[in-house]
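User: Predict the structure for this protein chain, please.
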Amino acid sequence: MKDKLFLKKSIPELLSSSMEGEHQLHRTLTSFNLVTLGIGAIIGAGLFSITGIAAANNAGPAVTISFVIAAIGCAFAGLCYAEFAAMIPIAGSAYTYSYATMGQFMAWIIGWDLVLEYAVGAATVAISWSRYLVKFLGNFGLYLPAHLTMSPFDSITTPEGAVITGIINIPAVFIVVVMSLLLIKGTQESATVNNIVVALKVSVVLVFIAFGWSYINTENYVPYIPENTGNFGEYGWSGVIRAAGIIFFAYIGFDAVSTAAQEAKNPQRDMPIGIMGSLAICTVLYVLFAHVMTGLANYTEFKGQDGIAPVAVAISHTPFLWLEQGVIIAILAGYASVILVMLLGQARVFFSMSRDGLIPPLFSEVHPKFKTPYKSSALFMLFVSLFAAFVPARVVGEMTSIGTLFAFVLVCIGILVLRKTNPEIPRPFKTPLVPLVPILGVLVCLAMMAALPGDTWLRLAIWMGIGLAIYFAYSIKHANSATKV
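Assistant: Here is the predicted structure, written as structure tokens:
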């Protein structure tokens, strides 16, 4: 049993197993689809809320610099993902890469960890989608019953003083079911819908930038980096760095592109374009958005705001007050595409783990017509729906972040390992400046993890404990034979 922990799958073995008839997925995604997939996963509501909060409390107008710093940190991990995705164009992302470099046990660890990022993350986003839908409909005088839009652990107090406790979050269930059915129907159909949604939310961002630019008050940029208050992380360069750590999570999601490698038409060329292209486009949009936002309103006006409030404050300095409703539409569209990509990523990770025998075979069964892992998608539709319906979002929000950063760390380490153990393997895309880039990726991501609250680490430890119990009780006994690299 001990030997099984460190068994690895060779690159040729991984590639050949992906071509088996019953496990073959349709290659329908172009580089454009992959770029929009990445943008769909990255741009969520975080852009509209975190930007103002980080400017108000940490960096001031220099939050634009923070976005660039955070993007550089993401780029380190993104370059490592791009090399792996082009070299091993197989569904499974970081799980598959870990199996090839660090063995079965670490592959299980990262696969189980990705459940935090994708399944739990999708449920969290669905809950927030429900909250914004209620706000959107309320602006038109349409009010959903409050007890049907919250979990049993949440409650609100009406203006009359009555306390309403939730029963079930039906809108959250609705969006999860719709996105899951779309994924079961087919990856190409999902990509088409995602392209439309991405166009919608990017259009709103561009409209905000274009309409707001003429109303920028340059006095709001003085001083560009406010003086430090005496506390680390509150303005000054320490504030710019801390803000980079806070808004780093606005970039999370580009790694989901790599889970669709087995459905890319030309993965050796398209995967690096999809990963790095989506990162580059989002960075430009983020910096321009933050520049306009802090130019319309003084950064001090964003204090104490949350949700879409920081953007609403900025919009109030223009005659285009209707833009606030447009921002809510962009948030709804943004969350929908994030849910879509997360559910796609989770199904593909479990598809690969099931194919390797680490979890039951039903997760790798492909629909005879649609050529999608439909049973995996259906099961996660049920799991994520239950989670979204009955669990409050605050419980798992930070778990998604720590799960993602942990995946980044292992992928960066994997590049270092594989460059040492298998230098001869053809690499259509090579991470530059190895070992510097992977090492910087590891250090940046570990620093971000260290900044998270202690209870988040405790939840991660508990989650991993559950995963280890499943691994030793089932996975190690049923795993397919593997070949040492």
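The CA atoms of residues 359 and 455 lie 29 Å apart.
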